[in-house]
Amino acid sequence: MRWITQDLPGEVARELFAARDAGAGEQQQTVILARALGHAYFREWGRRAHGLHIAFSDVEFADISIG
């Protein structure tokens, strides 16, 4: 199990809200979140792990806040 605490830029929230407003389902929104987490957390904003594919799966708990 991996606990991740990661700040993401406001563009991610805007993209998620736009997708939701356009009728995107949970799976499509999960892809957006996985891409953002992959870029920020695993790739450190492009400084490592180039080409790493991120799948956001088997999630037991997610606490997401917008501040």
The description of the largest β-sheet is: none
* Total number of strands: 0
* Percentage of residues in DSSP E strands: under 5%
Q: Give the helix tally.
A: 2
User: Spans with pLDDT under 50 lasting ≥5 residues?
Assistant: none
Order of helices and strands: HH
The CA-CA distance between the termini, in Å, is: 26 Å
Quote the average pLDDT.
83
- Give the proportion of residues in helices: 40-55%
Overall radius of gyration:
12 Å
Secondary-structure-derived class: mainly alpha
Shape: globular
What does it look like?
The radius of gyration is 12 Å and the shape is globular. The protein is mostly helical. It is built from two helices and no strands. Helix 1 runs antiparallel to helix 2. The mean pLDDT is 83.
